[in-house]
Design goal:
The protein is mostly helical. The longest helix has 27 residues, at about 20-45. Strands 1-2 form a two-stranded antiparallel ribbon. The chain has helices spanning about 20-45, 45-50, 55-65, and strands spanning about 10, 15. The protein starts with 7 loop residues before the first strand and ends with a helix.
């Protein structure tokens, strides 16, 4: 008996397999974790630190949310 991972065809050019779903999910979770970590770092910075690099807190948080 052989085991094979079945792919599902969703259209002409889209195939989905359990492995691709796993990779997409893991990537999404890693991105969310990195975003949360960066938000915590920005929130720990005081306003003078942020002003030294030319950003307000709102701008820094916006960049964290948009870039990831």
């Amino acid at each position: 008996m052989s085991l094979s991972i079945q792919t599902i065809r969703l259209g002409r050019h889209i195939e989905v397999s359990p492995v691709s779903i796993w990779h997409a999910t893991a990537s999404y979770i890693n991105r969310i974790r990195r975003q949360a970590s960066l938000r915590r770092e920005v929130e720990r910075m005081d306003d003078h630190m942020l002003a030294d690099i030319g950003l307000s807190r709102a701008q820094a948080l916006f960049e964290v949310d948009e870039r990831l």
